[in-house]
Amino acid sequence: MANREMAVYCFDTLVSHYNNEETPPPAFDDANHPLFVTWKKIVNGGEPRLRGCIGTLEARRLISGFKDYALTRCALRDRRFPPIQSKELPFLQCTVSVLTDYETADDYLDWEVGKHGIIIEFTEPVSNTKRSATYLPEVPAHEGWTKIEAIDSLVRKAGYSGVK
User: Fold this and answer.
1) What pTM value is reported for the model?
2) Superfamily classification of domain 4-98
3) Which residue range or ranges hold the AMMECR1 domain (predicted)?
């Protein structure tokens, strides 16, 4: 469901921000879906490195959602990275994900690396703190993780460090 025009729109949104211009109108329909925007930066001609990735599991109008997540939430406010600067634009790549067809797994290994995204939600046993985290389908595959390694990483991403 995600397409090139959606990634172009996200890039146009960021470029327009730095040029103090209006973002050109998008070339895709304004459906209602959960979405993610990922920015990667090519450093020294090497493999692109993550520069920001933020999304929502709540359905959003795609046009306003991509504009918001591409710029404000991802490029300028991903807490893991400093804000993207205009001088980085020539080195950036943008990918988008539109989430559809959620399935509840029978257990934590009921999914396929590279095919399914993972959403984990749990409550810490001692502190009763609710935790959650998400990986898009390409993350475990790109990292070369097994299912167990992906789940372990996802639990850490959710902020859980073990029983205290």
Assistant:
1) 0.84
2) Hypothetical protein ph0010; domain 1 (3.30.700.20)
3) 1-164
